[in-house]
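Hello Y.,

Per our agreement to keep a running log of every chain we model this quarter, I'm adding this entry. I've kept the format consistent with earlier entries: sequence first, then predicted structure.
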Amino acid sequence: MPVARALLVVFCVLAAGLARASEPAALPEEIRVASEEWNSYTQADGQGLAWDILREVFQTQGVKLDMRSVPYTRSVGLVQRREVDALVGSYQDETDGALYPRWNYDTDHIYSLGLATSPPLSLDTLGNHRLVWVRGYRYQDYLPNIQRFNEIRRRVGILPMLQQGRADFYIDALTEVEFVLAQAEDRTQFRRTHLAELPLFLAFANNERGRVLCALFDRRMDELVKDGRLRPIFQRWQQPYPFDAKRPPADR
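Predicted structure for the entry above:
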């Protein structure tokens, strides 16, 4: 009897442990999200398209959005060290060691900026030119045929760089290309050219908290895209709606 009773106790303990393990982890009270400060997108004052999307995803479920404005490369390090729960503006599988959801939350419209006297750039001719972009964006991993490129720390001095022949084309998302082009005394000296559409993701910290938040994100995006409830947010910020296909960009 003592042996049988002891085995019964062990069995009960194991069963209780398995039951707890099968229970879904509780949602955190907040999600700490790091992002570079992009105008009308992830502003430090909490305004912007991406912040509004994340409010709809998380805060409607009782998860408060804690926004942190840092340079993009720093946001990558914060996620990798699990000091924040997610970063904004990552391309698919870009950040080593991070968790990626099935759903993107937006799409980056990638453009080149060059002199109007230069032939328009295309994906086929990228390898023929000297390219420049902001450090950390790793366009060499997402655009084809790239041979020669330099990375800069800030979006300053780009127009003189093109005018003085130190680079042939600057590559960035459309919003940032427009920001640079707005500094020109004569916009007609330059030409912007569309190159690609790259889905934008949240990259989550690779821990239990990150897995719970990543799963919530995918579940909410399933609901929000199906219901069309994100469309008014894109309309409010006068940006193209990226979810007419009503499915994630690729099976994962």
